[in-house]
Write a structure and sequence with these properties.
alpha/beta, 8 strands, binds 1,4-dihydronicotinamide adenine dinucleotide, binds ligand L6LC73OR, oxidoreductase
């Protein structure tokens, strides 16, 4: 049996879609003939990305919606607008996230990455569920390799990403996911060449603890850096192969793409 989910005409909502990895995901989805809502806190970049993608992939296939994922009202409004504009939602990519480890910004890292992503996950479960007028589909949460392995440079960030992995694990085994045929997977990239990565590589001291840029540079050199196109290929594989459910996909320049199961041995 063909287990490929054709993306033609599918509707995707991508948070943090104005730039970086999210923008790459939006473009890959549009290339596969899906319709995409990019939701992002940055209006200037969001409008510019919308305009660029509309020119390439058709006005009717792309929309930008301003959304701070820490705001319940704004986030809910984006789901509503996407459903109204495109007739439903099939795919949600919870991608928006930030780094920040200082006394001033570490709690914001938790608010955006943990609470914001949980909010997106809860809304996605609601909008995709059959009992609330949805039609099932696929949720991909973007965590990080640092959510699985210790990263001494960004512990708060790493914790939020571990939280995203565990939240996905819990929803995978939920009755709600099974009843509505909702697949959930988590993407764990290592370094990817995006504005966030470039700030880190350029020595933005707010992104790490310790202030040792030599350690950051050595870490990046050891791990390697993926392009947004390479990570987008991984996303499209998760979306199109309907056997992919309850999985972690690790992506790193030197080791490639490796799937493992989200579930661990039960007691
Ligand atoms: N770049 C990297 O090396 C890696 C990044 N990641 C994760 O991938 C995701 C995307 O990261 P990048 O593209 O690198 O970052 P980026 O900073 O280049 O892009 C993130 C996008 O999210 C938006 N955003 C930030 N806060 C938001 C909020 N509160 N509400 C809505 N939108 C918001 C930004 O405006 C931006 O357009 C993040 O969750 C990040 O933690 C994971 C592994 C590696
Ligand atoms: C805001 C900072 C994070 C930037 C984005 C991000 O999520 C990047 C993650 C990249 C790679 C993580 C790799 C983890 C590797 C561990 O297994 C371990 O090898 C780390 C050991 C520390 C070291 O080598 O310095």
């Amino acid at each position: 049996m063909d287990r490929r989910m054709h993306l033609v005409g599918k509707v995707a909502l991508v948070t943090g879609g104005a730039s970086g990895m999210g923008c790459g995901f939006a473009e890959a989805l549009l290339k596969a003939a899906a319709k995409v809502c990019i939701a992002d806190i940055n209006v200037e970049t969001g409008v510019a990305t919308e305009s660029d993608l509309r020119q390439q992939y058709g006005h009717e296939n792309v929309m930008f919606s301003k959304c701070n994922i820490t705001s319940a009202t704004e986030f809910e409004a984006v789901f509503k607008r996407t459903k109204e504009a495109f007739g439903g939602i099939d795919i949600v990519v919870n991608n928006a996230g930030i780094g920040g480890e200082t006394d001033e910004n570490w709690e914001q890292t938790v608010d955006v990455n943990m609470k914001g992503t949980l909010r997106g996950l809860r809304l996605a479960m609601y909008y995709l569920s059959v009992e609330h007028g949805g039609r099932g589909g696929c949720i991909v949460n973007v965590a990080s390799m640092t959510g699985l392995n210790p990263n001494p440079l960004s512990p708060v960030y790493g914790c939020t990403k571990a939280g995203i992995i565990h939240a996905t694990r819990c929803y995978v085994v939920s009755e709600a996911a099974k009843k509505s045929n909702i697949r959930l997977n988590v993407l764990c990239p290592a370094f990817v060449d995006t504005p966030m990565f470039r700030r880190l590589a350029a020595g933005d001291a707010t992104q790490t603890i310790g202030g040792d840029q030599t350690a950051v540079t050595a870490f990046i050199e050891r791990i390697g850096v993926l392009s947004t196109e390479e990570v987008s290929v991984a996303l499209i594989d998760i979306l199109t192969d309907e056997t992919r459910n309850g999985l972690i996909l690790r992506c790193a320049k030197k080791t490639g793409n490796v799937y493992s199961t989200l579930t661990v041995q039960d007691v």
